[in-house]
Every structure is written in C-alpha cells, then in structure tokens.
C-alpha cells in the first residue's frame, strides 16, 4: 500500500512543468519552442497547505521543538494571515500545538476562515488605532507572544526560513534539472526562498544566475516602499532573512504586468496561480526572451510559483476589481449570463 502517515510527509518534492505559449518565443504558439531556452515552473501550490510556506512552517517548528523554545502543549503566535499562517496552522494541528494568529481587520473574512478551519484562533485588531494603542496589531501580538508557553516563529528574522529552502527547495531543483539549471527566478517577500535556494544553487555551480522579481515600489528594486497591490512580495524594509549577496539581478515588475500575466498563466498554461507567481513568471519570460536573442538554447530557467490562484478569485481574477484599479481586463473569459447565451 502507498500512503503517507501524515500530510506533513507530503510537503515538498513539488514538480517542475514546462512553460510554453506565455513565453512568446518563436514557435511558442504551437507549443514547440525551437531555439529558445527551456523554462520550467516549480509548482508550489501542490504542497498540502497550498503554498511554498509549508516548507518554512515545518522547519521553523521542528527547530523550535529541538531548541526547547516550543514545548509540548505550547502556543504558536504569529502576526500573519497569509500562506505562512496556513502552513503553521496545518503543522501545529498535526503536532498538537495551539495556534493564535493576529491580523488587522482589513484582512478578508475568507482568509481568516481558512485559518479557523484548521483549528487555529484568529484575533482581529482594529486598523484605525495608533500603533501604541493597547488594541493595536503590534501590541496585541507582542502581548500574546509574551505569555508563558507561547512562541513566535517570526518568519522575517528566523534563520530556519531560508534554511528550509537551502535544505529542500534548492536540492530538489538541482536534482530535477540534473544540475543543468542556468537561471533561477523568484519573487522576494521575507527573502527566505531566494536566499536559501540561491545559496544552495551557487554552491553547486557558481555560474547559476539568481534573479529576483520585485514589485515596482519595493526596496529590493530600489523603491521607497510606495504601495503596490501584488501580495506576498516586496517590502518597505530589509528583512534579516534576505541575503543581500545572493541575487545577481533584480527585475522590477509593475502590478499591471503581474496581474495580466497571472491571468495568462491560467488561460494559456492552465496554471491557476497567485499574483506573485504572475510577477515572477513575467520576469522569467523577460529572461527567456533575452536568452533567445543571444541564441542560448542550452539555458534552463527555473521560476518558482509560490501559491494558488484560488485565494485571489475575487481580486486578480475578477474584472470589476481590476477595472476599479484601472488595470486592463482584456483577453479574458466571456462572462455571459444565461440570458445572453
Ligand atoms: N509569494 C507569496 C504569495 C508569498 O506569500 C510569499 C511569502 N511572503 C512570497 C511570494 C515570497 O517568499 P519569501 O518570503 O520566501 O521571499
């Protein structure tokens, strides 16, 4: 019989799939790209919690168990509502820890409900109070994290975040490409993925080019932290988990390009992925087009796609939402009502 003992054993070992039409390389219309580089997407939504963050959740929790920071019956407290929360909630549930997430009230009810569905508790804080107010997001999470038995993973400073990618994601990509990878493209939030994978790949072959993709406005591409809409990537500060020496190049991507390309991935590659995936894949397409012009048919580009598009159906995949922010909604599915058919 073939089975896993727990969903935790299903984390990692995600597949690579070749990108075709969306690269707009000569021949890509027919799906037969002659003379272009091979571009492979690492599909992280196939992790059991639905994102790349399952990897860091497991590694951070196991390290805290080993160091004694997290004791049996302990409580995990983290100010997050996104993919890291889901990963932590899933691992905590399997290992018997309590999980409390603190999030601002602007976080959607759907996102809070996902965490609750795994058995986690969600504390919602008002956005409209000053940071020094006792009910503020910062004060509530600090107060909860200082209770006896509580442990805060702190994904922005925890070295086990990049380490999980150094130990799993990087070696997987190296083995899956049989050491033939020439370029690695990846978005940056905490910077854990690019730092861990990039370091591992460069240790195997210093010629591997590591390319960050970054929303226009974020500090990684020289911005000042001005707002952008793509979620999970870009920062207005430099996290400890980001290794500033690892990226050879950072490609700045606009929200408009990120969202349009996210829609293309669903419509043309049947990859229903999130906005940071569209952003990273847009950067990979740019790299592939440059390589094609240089005649680098030997190049193997791997782009990491962190999560699924299911969490963005009311945003990126919703024409009204896109239009509200002034983004193009062209080339989309006909959305006809029954009377019009
Ligand atoms: N995309 C999404 C959707 C994410 O949630 C994150 C994590 N914040 C990233 C990309 C970036 O990954 P990392 O934190 O490892 O840089």
UniProtKB/TrEMBL annotation:
<keyword id="KW-0663">Pyridoxal phosphate</keyword>
<keyword id="KW-0456">Lyase</keyword>
<protein>
    <recommendedName>
        <fullName>Cystathionine beta-synthase</fullName>
        <ecNumber>4.2.1.22</ecNumber>
    </recommendedName>
</protein>
<keyword id="KW-0129">CBS domain</keyword>
<comment type="pathway">
    <text>Amino-acid biosynthesis; L-cysteine biosynthesis; L-cysteine from L-homocysteine and L-serine: step 1/2.</text>
</comment>
<comment type="similarity">
    <text>Belongs to the cysteine synthase/cystathionine beta-synthase family.</text>
</comment>
<dbReference type="GO" id="GO:0004122">
    <property type="term" value="F:cystathionine beta-synthase activity"/>
</dbReference>
């Amino acid at each position: 019989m073939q089975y896993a003992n727990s969903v935790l054993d299903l984390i990692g070992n995600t597949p690579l799939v070749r990108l075709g039409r969306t690269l707009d390389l000569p021949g890509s219309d027919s799906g037969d790209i002659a003379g272009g580089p091979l571009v492979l997407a690492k599909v992280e939504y196939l992790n059991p919690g639905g994102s790349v963050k399952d990897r860091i959740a497991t590694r951070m929790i196991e390290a805290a168990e080993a160091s004694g920071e997290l004791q049996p019956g302990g409580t995990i407290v983290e100010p997050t509502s996104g993919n890291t929360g889901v990963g932590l909630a899933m691992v905590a549930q399997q290992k018997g820890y309590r999980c409390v997430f603190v999030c601002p009230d602007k976080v959607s009810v759907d996102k809070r409900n996902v965490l609750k569905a795994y058995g986690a508790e969600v504390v919602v804080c008002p956005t409209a109070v000053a940071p020094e107010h006792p009910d503020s997001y910062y004060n509530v999470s600090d107060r909860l994290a200082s209770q006896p038995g509580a442990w805060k993973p702190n994904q922005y400073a925890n070295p086990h975040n990049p380490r999980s990618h150094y130990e799993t994601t990087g070696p997987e990509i190296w083995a899956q490409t049989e050491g033939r990878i020439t370029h690695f493209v990846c978005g940056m939030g905490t910077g854990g993925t690019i730092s861990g994978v990039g370091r591992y790949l460069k240790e195997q072959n210093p010629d591997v080019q590591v390319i960050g993709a970054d929303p226009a406005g974020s500090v990684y591409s020289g911005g000042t932290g001005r707002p952008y809409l793509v979620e999970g990537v870009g920062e207005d500060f430099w996290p400890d988990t980001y290794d500033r020496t690892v990226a050879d190049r950072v490609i700045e991507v606009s929200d408009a390009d990120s969202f349009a390309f996210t829609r293309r991935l669903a419509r043309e590659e049947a990859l229903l992925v999130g906005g940071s995936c569209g952003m990273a894949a847009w950067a990979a397409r740019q790299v592939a087009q440059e390589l094609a012009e240089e005649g680098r048919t030997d190049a193997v580009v791997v782009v990491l796609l962190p999560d699924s598009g299911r969490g963005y159906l009311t945003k990126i995949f919703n024409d009204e939402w896109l239009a509200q922010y002034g983004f193009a909604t062209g080339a989309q599915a006909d959305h006809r009502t029954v009377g019009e058919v």
